[in-house]
Amino acid sequence: MLKVVIIGSGNVAQHLIGAFQKSDKVELTQVYARNTEKLQHLHGHLSVTDDFNRIAESDLYIIAVSDDAINSVSEQLAFSGRLVVHTSGSTAMESIDSKNRRGVFYPLQTFSKNKEVDFTKIPVCLETEDPSDYALLEELAKSISPLTYSISTTQRQALHLAAVFVNNFTNHLYTVGNDICTKNNIPFDILKPLIWETATKISTLTPVEAQTGPAKRNDTTTLQRHLDFLQDDNQKAIYTLLTHSIQSKNG
Amino acid sequence: MLKVVIIGSGNVAQHLIGAFQKSDKVELTQVYARNTEKLQHLHGHLSVTDDFNRIAESDLYIIAVSDDAINSVSEQLAFSGRLVVHTSGSTAMESIDSKNRRGVFYPLQTFSKNKEVDFTKIPVCLETEDPSDYALLEELAKSISPLTYSISTTQRQALHLAAVFVNNFTNHLYTVGNDICTKNNIPFDILKPLIWETATKISTLTPVEAQTGPAKRNDTTTLQRHLDFLQDDNQKAIYTLLTHSIQSKNG
Q1: Interface of A with B in 210-249 (CB under 8 A)
Q2: How many domains does chain B have?
Q3: Same-domain check for residues B161 and B37
Q4: Mutate: best of B11, B144, B149, B165, partner A, most A CBs <10 A
Q5: CATH number, domain with residue A13
Q6: In chain A, which residues have their Cβ closer than 8 Å to the Cβ of B164?
Q7: Which of A151, A184, A209 is the last residue of a domain?
Q8: Mutation site, A67, A71, A119, A172, interface B, largest B CB count within 10 A
Q9: Which domain holds residue A226?
Q10: Fewer CB within 10 Å, N side or C side of chain B?
Q11: Quick one: A204 and A99 in the same domain?
């Protein structure tokens, strides 16, 4: 059994705790939390500490804290020479103090409080400073998801950025759609099946193949009517920029 | 049994033919197609004509042709005083020649050739010029989907526009994500679970509640690093505009 300690008590930490507790290939030895109350619901099932000097010996340590805190948490670890990884998409592996062997365990998903996720469908992006540590990290990841990928620091930065486009920016387009509906007394629910179909389509088509709409068809009448309809300058600007972007992408 | 004739042989027409053929509350009396070969696979199951003078008598006529052709097709109908509807999200009901009673039957979904759709999950937006025709049109719609909505012309224009944001523009953001992956030798598959989760989240949260990311957190370090990473001017412009839009939306 692979022994692992999780350091942190936020969203990612809590989802990882849940996933490892379900796995029969990993022993979650301990969780460190500055504020152990956040893990109160797990007491009895879990060894929890708030003392860096009492962190248990383990094969692997996962620092699942906010990006800004990774470095200082790693400095406070009272041991050295062990494998310590963080879970951040946008933080360099080198943020971890060099007294330990370093790596990254980045689950590419958006985690919300109180919303369970199925880890078997989450890609985990892995990186280790020392290639000989990779197998151990991969074994840990495979214990919760079959979707593991070896991803370099640069690739991870690219992925994190791509994720902003397909997740944060897409969600903002949903917000715009919602605002247009609200303004015209239309229930946003009408748009949801279309949103789901749009996301599903790319399982069988590339996004370029799946592209439809007035911008792609260069339907100037509809494009002008849409711009005339929009009154919000910000929405107009988004409409114009994304229309041009689609047109330049599709020749 | 409600009798219906479909005029057209494109994507929407073919999906509607399939849906009505499955329904036991509707009799698909006939299909008109300028080019009947496009319906060849349905011969034997269906009465098809390419002659406007031979269109069968029916309770309802659905014109499912391209937006530009709606008016001329409606003019060529050799009868008057009957209920004729089009399926377009962005065309005025008045495009239909006034010799017939007019309406709109707009299924809000993106239809692809060769990809079956489940009509019971598709919202159908209905409008009739004469309120006394509404019940008939609603009965037709309910025969294939429980999700029917009374939607005015202005609301339909708003919906069509909102659909461009949540469907066409969202798909374009998937294209940008795909391009970033390709450029960095990352399989686009890694992003798909995130895309699906983003679309699923809005079934339980409003888009504003679901918003996450560096723009929302005003994480200026990450925002600047992302802009530095991007080399494509177009991608930079999209990143900047949508970041500002998220920030102004979230105060």
Answers
A1: 210-216, 222, 225-226, 229-230, 234, 237-239, 241-242, 244-246, 248-249
A2: 2
A3: no
A4: B165
A5: 3.40.50.720
A6: 213-215, 226, 239
A7: A151
A8: A172
A9: 156-249
A10: C
A11: no
Q: Are residues A51 and A118 in the same domain?
A: yes
Interchain pair B155, A203: CB under 8 A: no
Residue in B90, B168, B245 closest to A225 by CB: B90
Residue A149, pLDDT score = 97
Q: Using an 8 Å Cβ cutoff, are B89 and B106 in contact?
A: yes
Q: Which residues contact A210 (CB under 8 A, 6 or more apart)?
A: A198, A201, A202, B112, B171, B174
- Do residues B88 and B23 both lie within one domain? yes
The CA angle A50-A56-A58, to the nearest 5 degrees, is 135
How confident is the model over B163-198, as pLDDT tens digits? Answer: 999 999 999 999 999 999 999 999 999 999 999 999
Compute the nearest-CA separation of B163 from chain A (Å): 7
Residue with tokens 């969202």: B170
Q: Give per-residue pLDDT as tens, B113-163.
A: 777 788 999 999 999 999 999 999 999 999 999 999 999 999 999 999 999
Chain B contact for A10, CB < 8 A? no
Secondary structure (DSSP) of B116-130? ---GGGS-EEEEESS
Spatial distance between the Cα atoms of A187 and B45, rounded to a whole number of angstroms: 38
- For chain B, give the number of residues: 251
Contact between A246 and B157 using a beta-carbon 8 Å cutoff: no
CB B29 within 8 A of CB B45: no
Which of the residues in chain A have pLDDT under 50? none
- pTM confidence score: 0.91
Q: Are residues B58 and B111 in the same domain?
A: yes
Query: What is the model's pLDDT at position A250?
Result: 80
